[in-house]
Amino acid sequence: MNRTIGLHLQFHTSITAVARKALQLQLPSFQTIFVQEKKTRPLKLTKEDKKEFLSLRPKFHNLYAHASFLINFSAENSDHPVLLKELFLCQSLEFNHYVFHPGAWKDPATKTVGLDRVAQLINKMIKAFPSITFYIENTANKKSLLGADINDLIYLFERTDKPEQLKFCLDTAHAHLAGYSLEPHADDYILDRFSLFKDNIQLIHLNDSNEERGSFKDIHALPGYGKIGTKILKNLIDTKPIDGKTLIIEPSMSFEGSLHDILPNVWNNR
Question: Is the pTM here over 0.85, yes or no?
Answer without folding.
Answer: yes
